[in-house]
């Protein structure tokens, strides 16, 4: 695919602080985290425990960070973490996490302790961005002494719970703007040459190459198939430039790359990828696909107990 030249910076030279500031100054608020997300979280307080685990202050705006926990918490139950909005622009991840706990939380809390952090990057949600204001990708920043407060806050919160996670499902999207905006911006920031990848048309999963859990991934794919189509591989049997491990699944070195799904020692981990720009998908279908992914994951784990 053809390359896209980014308007900020000089070819082959990584951005300095002035260029990062230029990028930040070009951003603007497009939607409301408080109206779209916090309002829905507040509706859950009758059935769930809602905890504020941090706050971000960007552009003179305050962004409280919330976790939603199932109420009938018991230490003898396995604990599952669901994260959304690590990349704030990936809308169905945010709303899929909330929809899951709203519609299926009571059912699955009979078997699991549930922890849901639906919007880890609220500034990214409002500005429809992959990065935070410092031009840092939170989903490459899940490691000790993280430079991204979005990542650092949620890692500290989960560590403070003092529980072992059995599973972590991280909800994401792959969009056409990956090629039109985010990959060109990344190449410009790092002083590299951009080469766009083929955007998969459909749902797929990214597993952790250190613990791929193939049957777990397969169970998720099978459940999501009931809602939406699974992305076929390209002519090289790849998805986003990575060899397909099984139908609809690729593997990444999660911890080495600083990915959200890699920060814990959970046995079962996955990153969902919904394609909202498909001509056959709707916003609602994308949300339901995220819910189906979580349900498929938990049904599989429950069957193994």
From TrEMBL:
GO BP terms: proteolysis
Q: Which residues form the Peptidase M14 domain?
A: 32-305
Q: Please give the SUPFAM superfamilies that the UniProt record associates with this protein.
A: Zn-dependent exopeptidases
Q: What is a GO molecular function of this protein? A: zinc ion binding
Q: Which residues form a coiled coil?
A: none
Question: What does the sequence similarity comment in the record state about its family?
Answer: Belongs to the peptidase M14 family.
| Protein name (record) | Peptidase
Species the sequence originates in: Pseudoalteromonas porphyrae
What is the taxonomic lineage of the source species?
Bacteria, Pseudomonadati, Pseudomonadota, Gammaproteobacteria, Alteromonadales
């Amino acid at each position: 695919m053809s390359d896209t030249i980014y308007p900020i910076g000089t070819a082959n030279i990584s951005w300095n602080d002035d260029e990062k500031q230029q990028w930040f100054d070009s951003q603007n608020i497009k939607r409301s985290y408080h109206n779209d997300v916090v309002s829905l979280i507040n509706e859950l307080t009758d059935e769930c425990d809602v905890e504020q685990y941090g706050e971000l202050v960007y552009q003179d705006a305050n962004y409280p960070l919330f976790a939603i926990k199932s109420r009938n918490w018991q230490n003898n139950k396995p604990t599952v973490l669901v994260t959304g909005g690590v990349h704030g622009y990936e809308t169905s991840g945010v709303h899929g996490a909330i929809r899951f706990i709203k519609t299926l939380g009571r059912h699955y809390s009979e078997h699991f302790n549930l922890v849901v952090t639906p919007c880890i990057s609220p500034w990214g949600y409002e500005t429809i961005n992959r990065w935070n204001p410092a031009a840092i990708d939170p989903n490459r920043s899940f490691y000790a002494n993280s430079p991204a407060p979005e990542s650092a806050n949620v890692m500290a919160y989960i560590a403070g719970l003092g529980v072992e996670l059995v599973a972590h499902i991280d909800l994401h999207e792959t969009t056409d703007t990956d090629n039109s905006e985010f990959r060109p911006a990344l190449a410009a920031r790092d002083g590299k040459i951009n080469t766009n990848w083929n955007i998969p048309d459909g749902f797929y999963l990214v597993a952790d190459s250190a613990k791929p859990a193939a049957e777990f991934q397969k169970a998720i794919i099978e459940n999501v198939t009931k809602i939406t189509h699974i992305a076929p591989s390209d002519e090289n049997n790849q998805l986003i430039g990575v060899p397909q491990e099984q139908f609809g699944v690729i593997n990444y070195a999660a911890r080495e790359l600083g990915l959200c799904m890699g920060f814990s020692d959970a046995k079962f981990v996955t990153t969902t990828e919904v394609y909202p720009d498909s001509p056959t998908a709707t916003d609602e279908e994308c949300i339901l696909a995220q819910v189906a992914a979580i349900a498929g994951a938990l049904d599989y784990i429950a069957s193994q107990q």
